[in-house]
Amino acid sequence: MKLSSLEIAGENFESRLFLGTGKFSSSESLAQVIDASESQMVTVAMKRADPVSGKDSILKVLTTRDIKILPNTSGVRNADEAIFVAKIAREALGTNWLKLEIHPDPKYLMPDPVETLIATEQLVKDGFVVLPYCHADPVLCKRLEDVGSHAVMPLGSPIGSNQGLQSKEFLKIIIEQANVPVIVDAGIGCPSQANEAMEMGAAAVLVNTALASSRNPEMMAEAFKNGVVSGRMAYMAGLGSVSHTAQATSPLTKFLD
Amino acid sequence: MSSGSYLELFSSTDWEHISKLIEKATRSDVERALLNSRGSDLSDFAALVSPVASEYYLNEMAKLSHDLTVQRFGSSIRLFAPMYLSNECNNICDYCGFSLGNKIKRKTLTDDEIIEEAKILKNEGFSHVLLVTGESSKNINCSYFSKALRILRPYFSNLSMEVQPLEAVEYKKLIKDGLHGIFVYQETYNTESYAKHHLKGRKKNFNWRLETPERLGSVGINKIGLGCLYGLTKDWRTDAYFAAQHLGFLEKKFWRTSFSMSFPRLRPCMGESKSIFPLLDRDLVQLICAFRIFSHELEISISTRESPSLRENLLPLGVTTMSAGSKTNPGGYGSSESSQSLEQFEVSDDRSPTEIEKLLRSKGYDPVWKDWDSSYDKFSMNYNLTELDTAGVS
């Protein structure tokens, strides 16, 4: 059965699994992961990218594949820095797409909601397609949507923690209210968690550490691919409702029939 | 968190009390610390640097440290090179090759010589460079650093410095010139030992040095490097405890700043010190693991002071950053006459950057030459975008 593709800013993606590029032991390992995952959207931090020297092995992997390169601003500490880095990224990598990441706290890498909102508004005005990484805060996600973000990327749990969907109840509210794709980013540690996010109605998930820290990243990439597909299918098919008690076979209102 | 200073916290912490606390740590204290691996807990740290931890739990600590490091940093090791700009120094410190008392040739690089060194390091692949000088404030001061940073900015994406402590307003200026981080080692947190080894010059002022990281934090520096020089003080475990206390204090107060910890051990140099307390390899391993468990995101670097085989063995235990092909004398990378000037310390691992890169790959690590972009400091090295000057919001 063919699933509908994901549309963001007029572009279509068959795969709903997005990847990060950090922490891999080699560019060869990253290449195997991308191929096995069949991902079509891969993000790369501008601080790591080196498009000038021609020696950047990660960029070589990305540019030789039919995938969308999504530069990110990981490492910036405020809106001002993010906007500057975004403009350099647009020139250096030839794309106006941006994963906006402003997490000034190096311990938990928590996204700064104030700076993220300010930068999103400005970057949208400057013609960027902005996908902001943010906390699972339903009001913030609506505010980001209001200023023109093309998707929102709320966290499941802290970046790299593999703790899964700790923010589940808030993600459900965000998904229910959103008019833009909701991409669950950060903290997804295993395929069942990716599957769960997709079953909840997330438009896509972004995964990195769970793959890079696996003993077999390539096989894990395929497992995630399958988890995402099955979760999406379940969401489209419609899950049965959950009840905490048995349903009476003779309803109490039967006398009205 | 109080809004007080670290000096206040330091002054209210008794060295002897901490020393006894570490000495008396029990096996169950260590086991509790290993189970509670969230970090940032000083009583756990005391247990992890204790003699009993070394005797019974070093392997468990190494395993946990390894796992936490992989989780946070993956299989990557960042590479950097030190660039010594000057060996002039007005301090007398009895362990240092640059000490004023040493009859060595003094050299400070000129603008052209700085460029010459930069070209060599750039050509070797380095993007991250640490500028090092002695402490001679008359000539080697904020304006010299400012000029050096502006000269080097077009060559490298990330510039840090290890120089004498400066005023906050001077750091503020240097950040604008492209400074990313400052390494300022307290050398030892034992005031008696500090006084014994720092005999003359501004470095004698223990408190001025101790307060430096807070001056840096107050002006929003990106990274602060801390550390003790192991070998100066007999009770290295307590020294490390104070370094951890300092780190924990700074992490909470300056929550946007990254931190780095180094573990230099005294090596032969032309210093005059006779009273060195050698830190064993086993002790170094314990320190690295204890600090990783204390701070999961801490940058931990291991210098070319250490031997090639030890550096390789330390790699999986928590190390995130390595120097390679280091020269510790001003002009050391170039072939000019200035390279005859004396080293600060003797380099033990003299393998070239290419050899280190190959070694890392063979061990399953991704050598990372570039992990910062000058655009993050609002410098555009390669793109001439005039509108960028007016970019942003305020």
Structural notes for this entry:
The complex is a heterodimer of chains A (257) and B (394). With 257 residues, chain A is of the alpha/beta class. Helix content of chain A is 39%, strand content 15%. A five-stranded parallel sheet of chain A has the order 5-4-3-10-9. In chain A, strands 6-7-8 form a three-stranded parallel sheet. A two-stranded antiparallel ribbon of chain A has the order 1-2. In chain A, strand 1 (6-8) and strand 2 (11-13) form a beta hairpin. In chain A, helix 3 (79-93) packs across helix 4, helix 5 (138-146) runs parallel beside helix 6 (168-177) and helix 7 packs parallel to helix 9. Chain A is globular. The mean pLDDT of chain A is 91. With 394 residues, chain B is α/β, with parallel strands linked by helices. Chain B has helices spanning 6-11, 15-23, 27-35, 42-48, 51-56, 58-73, 111-124, 142-152, 168-176, 191-197, 206-210, 212-218, 236-253, 281-294, 308-314, 353-362, and strands at residues 76-86, 92-93, 128-133, 158-162, 179-183, 198-200, 223-227, 258-262, 299-302, 321-323, 366-368. An eight-stranded parallel β-barrel of chain B has the order 1-3-4-5-7-8-9-10, surrounded by five helices. In chain B, strands 2-6 form a two-stranded antiparallel sheet. In chain B, helix 6 packs across helix 14 (281-294) and helix 8 packs parallel to helix 9. The longest helix of chain B has 18 residues, at 236-253. Chain B starts with 5 loop residues before the first helix and ends in a 26-residue tail after the last strand. Residues 386-394 of chain B have low confidence and may be disordered. Chains A and B meet through helix 3 and helix 4 of A and helix 6 of B.
